Amino acid sequence: xxxxxxxxxxxxxxxxxxxxxxxxxxxxxxxxxxxxxxxxxxxxxxxxxxxxxxxxxxxxxxxxxxxxxxxxxxxxxxxxxxxxxxxxxxxxxxxxxxxxxxxxxxxxxxxxxxxxxxxxxxxxxxxxxxxxxxxxxxxxxxxxxxxxxxxxxxxxxxxxxxxxxxxxxxxxxxxxxxxxxxxxxxxxxxxxxxxxxxxxxxxxxxxxxxxxxxxxxxxxxxxxxxxxxxxxxxxxxxxxxxxxxxxxxxxxxxxxxxxxxxxxxxxxxxxxxxxxxxxxxxxxxxxxxxxxxxxxxxxxxxxxxx
Length: 306
What we know:
Helix content: over 70%
Number of strands: 0
Mean pLDDT: 81
Shape: rod-shaped
Strand content: under 5%
Structural class: mainly alpha
CATH topology: Helix Hairpins
Radius of gyration: 61 Å
Low-confidence stretches: 301-306
Largest sheet: none
CATH class: Mainly Alpha
CATH architecture: Orthogonal Bundle
Distance between the termini: 46 Å
Order of helices and strands: HHHHH
């Protein structure tokens, strides 16, 4: 700044800069007010997003628990089915054995041609006749041959009865196996219902998660939009602050000149007042404490004492 301005001109220059700076500050205040509204909305969107994300995290943990329980139940079902399969195989094997034994029993019954009780009765009667009764030789021979044949039939009937007893025992075992199968089937059904229940709960949670994730994504989208809306304001704030800094730098020389003028004026005023006080002292007139303070500022007391 080469030109020398008067105090009035300097004041006018400073006032112009101050006025321009104040205008920019007011503009800044308005932008900050708008920015505050946007930031409050951004905080709300961020909170809504983070709240939903936290809910999603907790729901995932809950779903993980249900999946684990479902998998445990399915593992039990798998083992039960394997056990049931083994029991069915045993039942099938026993059924095959029963079929074979029944066929053999029926064949023996056909060979025995009578029940064990009936054959025992005839056997006893024939034996009693042979041992105790006097019969003709020819009849005795026929009776003896019949006795031998009856003995063979009796043996077949005994074997048939034994097989029948084994078949009945096997049937009892099959009945127990059937009971085990029924119990296993019922347990599998209940476990399947339990597994299905866990699966449904997990699906319900995933449905909630989908809704929450969509809501979270929506809040995040709004947050990003809000950031984009705030960017021009932040840039404008930075630009205005830079402009204010430039204006202050431009105003500084004028302000410094003005301060220098005020300082010189004040020094002249004090100098003039000090001269008047010294004249009072020289004339032995009373001076006030304020007058002494002025002399101290001017460092004139030492001169008076000399």
